[in-house]
Write a structure and sequence with these properties.
Protein name: Outer envelope protein 64, chloroplastic
Keywords: Membrane, TPR repeat, Transmembrane, Transmembrane helix
Strand order of the largest sheet: 1-3-2-4-6-5-12-13-11-7-8
Largest sheet: 11 strands, mixed
InterPro entries: Amidase_dom (IPR023631), AS_sf (IPR036928), TPR-like_helical_dom_sf (IPR011990), TPR_rpt (IPR019734)
Pfam families: Amidase (PF01425)
Number of strands: 13
Organism: Rhodamnia argentea
């Protein structure tokens, strides 16, 4: 009896051990791809061309595609099993996927998307929510959740997704990878399931900026061009105020990296709320949403309402017939949006078109061909899995206010990781004008290593609250000085710049700006001294050389003035003012 009991315990123990082992194996199997894929497959590139022709540009790279891109012989699932059941296999592969395979890359599978690619949470109750490798208890972000996770988990070299109102940018920010949203209309959407035609654009993820750039060059099919450095880095101060973490922790990474690479003189600050109020007048005609029962107008929040209105309207136009015929069980987010859709008129649609055109024109005017707008990618850290935060009005207002700028204007945008905060990824976004995709890709490639270096430094340093406050106060004083300068109140401008210098004495821009005001007053000795100080702090400050050259010319130091103008021309060969001034002085005095 004792022997039988012992044998029973042995068998029971083996059984439990087997269950534990099987459980571990199952967990390992799930975690191997982090739940990123819905289908594994292999699309192989064509053979390499014979020498001396160059190999395919994407040779040796693997990629995954979000399950909104058609692949011949496979049903495009659109994040919902009922869609998959009611649709035939694709007759041909989407243009984007074909282009990448022909470019030398190998496609290894299709990845999970949010249900009908509508949401930005990354959660999918049908196929499972992919695990965020950067923060496993947090959502990965959507709609292209699986594509971002596949890159974050090093399962592929790059992946592609669709960005309507953040479908690539949000998961890139939440998973700590690079995510690029192309300019609207620059890459073919042939063979891509539509969410909102006016907003949809192809995007891609990578960890390596050089891979991001190579993929971009293949997809955009851009001709060779000399790489250009940005001449303006415009920080949208009011957008950074939406952040739920320390503003300076993110902004200073960009500021320090820009200073190191290009000099502080290209840094500028802008209040987008005020700028859009004056440049996008049609926003005022769009019905504003009440917040906590009060009607508070905000141009950035109004943009969010425009983007969501267009998405809902075009989504219904594209898929209402299927929803009525298939009667699928839809995610609560989609159901709520569809049921809350107000009656749409032709006037509403036309107003949205006007807003889009005005916004694109405003951003093009602000950035021109060589400017970059800097904003947060998202305002919050990734919400917890299953949390209620995703549905809160406050969260949605903040996140869509930031995402709608590129979505409505059609500009290109890239989300870049800049370290961690409380074990969650941090990110920042760079925006270039519509059609400026190559310029933006080149800028990312040039800046990325320095941004990561500065992010690492920032994570290890703990600036005192007082130091942060003084720097912020100095920037405010400088902006007041700039406003006074525009209004030709020279002495008032000097007072504000002096205040900024007292608060932060190692900033070349403050001295250079004060030199400009001294020049207007005819105080040439003071202008020369301030310009010299600015140059000692920043050897690449072109404006300081120009201002010192002007001051020295007025003081009669012609040879020194020629040297200043000539050096400004070395730093910025296309600067007409430096070229004309140097040539004029040479003719007169040499």
């Amino acid at each position: 009896m004792a022997s039988q009991s012992a044998n029973l315990w042995v068998l029971l123990g083996l059984g439990i051990a087997g269950i534990v082992l099987m459980t571990r194996k199952l967990k390992r199997a799930v975690r191997e791809d982090f739940g990123a894929f819905v289908h594994k497959l292999h699309l192989l590139p064509p053979p390499q061309p014979a020498p001396p022709k160059a190999p395919h540009p994407l040779t040796g790279l693997s990629f995954a595609v979000s399950d909104v891109f058609d692949i011949e012989g496979h049903v495009t699932g659109f994040g919902h099993p009922d869609w998959e059941k009611t649709h035939e296999a694709a007759a041909r592969t989407s243009t984007v996927v074909s282009t990448l395979v022909e470019g030398g890359a190998t496609c290894v599978g299709k990845t999970v998307v949010d249900e009908m690619a509508f949401s930005i949470s990354g959660e999918n109750k049908h196929y499972g929510t992919p695990t965020n490798p950067a923060a496993t208890a947090r959502v990965p972000g959507g709609s292209s959740s699986g594509a971002a996770v596949a890159v974050a988990a090093n399962l592929v070299d790059f992946s592609i997704g669709i960005d309507t109102i953040g479908g690539v940018r949000v998961p890139a920010g939440y998973c700590g990878v690079i995510g690029f949203r192309s300019s609207h209309g620059t890459i073919s959407n042939m063979g891509v399931l539509p969410v909102s035609t006016s907003l949809d654009t192809v995007g891609w993820f990578a960890k390596d900026p050089s891979i991001l750039r190579r993929v971009g060059h293949v997809l955009l099919q851009v001709p060779f061009a000399v790489q250009r450095n940005p001449r303006q880095m415009i920080i949208a101060d009011d957008c950074f105020q939406l952040l739920k973490i320390s503003v300076d922790r993110v902004v200073q990474v960009v500021v320090k990296a820009t200073e190191k690479l290009y000099g502080r003189q290209i840094l500028k600050h802008e209040n987008l709320e005020s700028y859009f109020n004056s440049k996008v007048p049609s926003l005022k005609a769009f019905p504003a949403k009440k917040t906590n029962g009060e009607l508070k107008r905000s141009s950035i929040r109004d943009l969010a309402e425009v983007a969501m209105f267009v998405q809902r309207h075009e989504f219904i136009t594209n898929h209402e017939e299927w929803i009525h015929s298939a009667n699928p069980i839809l995610d609560a987010v989609i159901s709520k949006q569809l049921h809350n859709m107000p009656q749409t008129t032709e006037v509403d649609i036309e107003n949205c078109r006007v807003i889009r055109n005005e916004l694109r024109s405003a951003i093009n005017s602000l950035l021109k061909d060589d400017g970059i707008l800097v904003i947060p990618t998202v305002a919050d850290p990734p919400p917890k899995l299953g949390g209620k935060e995703l549905q809160s009005e406050d969260y949605q207002s903040r996140v869509f206010s930031l995402l709608s700028i590129s979505s409505v204007s059609g500009c290109c945008q890239v989300s870049l990781p800049v370290g961690f905060h409380e074990k969650c990824p941090l990110s920042v976004s760079l925006i270039a004008r519509n059609g400026g995709d190559r310029f933006l890709l080149d800028t990312v490639n040039a800046m990325y290593a320095t941004l990561q270096e500065q992010a690492d430094i920032a994570s290890k340093s703990k600036p005192t609250k007082n130091a942060v406050t003084r720097e912020n106060s100095a920037e405010i004083a400088k902006e007041k000085g700039n406003q006074a300068f525009k209004e030709k109140q020279w002495q008032k401008a000097i007072s504000f710049y002096t205040e900024a210098i007292k608060l932060s004495g190692n900033n070349a821009t403050y001295y250079s700006n004060r030199a400009a005001a001294y020049l207007e007053l005819g105080s040439y000795l003071q202008a020369e001294a301030d310009s010299t100080k600015a140059i000692s702090l920043d050897k690449k400050n072109v404006k300081a050389y120009l201002r010192r050259g002007t001051a020295r010319e007025m003081l009669g130091y012609y040879q020194d003035a020629i040297e200043d103008f000539s050096y400004a021309l070395v730093l910025e060969p296309t600067n007409k003012r430096a070229s004309l001034s140097a040539e004029r002085l040479r003719k007169l005095f040499l």
